């Protein structure tokens, strides 16, 4: 499998599909072993299908741009394949993949900030070099809370939140696509936001 094949996988994958994460990282570990030992393209494709949504959501969390997030994902999957023989297989691929994508996204962001003469509009000013270990841990914990809370929402509520907040679709376009009224879109979005805020507020209360 070459970088062009991986690029096609990324380009054709629907952004933010509503599949859940695997219950454990054990399946990912077995796939990584299969990739490493047998150069299995089938196992690599299974790993890709399993983790694309998580990778995209992590990258988008930091970059806030679809095209940048996809470039980061392409780079990471290409690196995983090219270094499959020397890659150390982590005990917890979920935790490892979060750190992997986060660092790749932050490096990409730093590169874009250096390239531009002035900071880009709406781009988060965050750097991997100025985060303390505690801040990095908090970022990871917050993202996991966000992702888990999102997956716990009722399906329609989750779908509407993703389309409006992550895919930046308008209320009208979401209402038309789902054959519901804009008022229903707004009500479901507010429901999702309220639940997510509750989870995040609980996190900060428990840290006191």
Overall mean pLDDT score? 77
Instruction: Please report the total strand number as a whole number.
Output: 0
Which class of secondary structure composition applies to the elements?
Answer: mainly alpha
Percent in helix = over 70%
Give the helices and strands as they follow along the chain: HHHHHHHHH
Low-pLDDT stretches are: 14-23, 117-129
Structural account:
This is RNA polymerase sigma-70 factor, expansion family 1. Belongs to the sigma-70 factor family. ECF subfamily. GO terms for molecular function: DNA binding; sigma factor activity. Keywords: Sigma factor, Transcription, Transcription regulation. With 208 residues, the chain is mainly alpha-helical. It folds into 2 domains: 115 residues, Orthogonal Bundle (Rna Polymerase Sigma Factor, Chain: A); 74 residues, Arc Repressor Mutant, subunit A. 73% of the residues lie in helices and 0% in strands. It is built from 9 helices and no strands. Helix 1 packs antiparallel against helix 4, helix 3 crosses helix 5 and helix 7 crosses helix 9.
SSE blueprint:
Elements: H1 3-12, H2 26-38, H3 41-63, H4 66-82, H5 93-115, H6 133-152, H7 155-166, H8 171-178, H9 182-207
Helix pairs in contact: 1-4, 2-3, 3-4, 3-5, 4-5, 6-9, 7-9, 8-9
């Amino acid at each position: 499998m070459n970088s062009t094949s991986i690029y096609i996988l990324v380009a054709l994958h629907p952004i933010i599909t509503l599949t859940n994460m695997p219950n454990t990282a054990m399946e990912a570990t077995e796939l990584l072993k299969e990739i490493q030992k047998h150069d299995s393209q089938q196992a690599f494709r299974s790993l890709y299908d399993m983790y694309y949504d998580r990778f995209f959501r992590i990258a988008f969390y930091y970059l806030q741009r679809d095209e940048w997030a996809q470039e980061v994902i392409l780079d990471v999957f290409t690196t995983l394949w090219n270094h499959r023989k020397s890659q150390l297989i982590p005990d917890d691929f979920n935790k490892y993949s979060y750190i992997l994508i986060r660092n790749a996204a932050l490096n990409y962001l730093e590169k874009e900030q250096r390239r531009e003469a002035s900071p880009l509009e709406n781009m988060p000013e965050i750097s991997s070099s100025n985060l303390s270990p505690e801040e990095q841990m908090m970022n990871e914990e917050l993202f996991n809370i966000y992702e888990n809370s999102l997956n716990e929402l009722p399906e329609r509520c989750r779908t509407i939140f993703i389309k409006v907040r992550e895919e930046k679709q308008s209320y009208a376009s979401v209402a038309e696509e789902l054959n519901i009224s804009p008022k229903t879109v707004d009500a479901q979005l507010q429901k999702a936001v309220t639940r997510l805020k509750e989870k995040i507020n609980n996190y900060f209360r428990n840290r006191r």
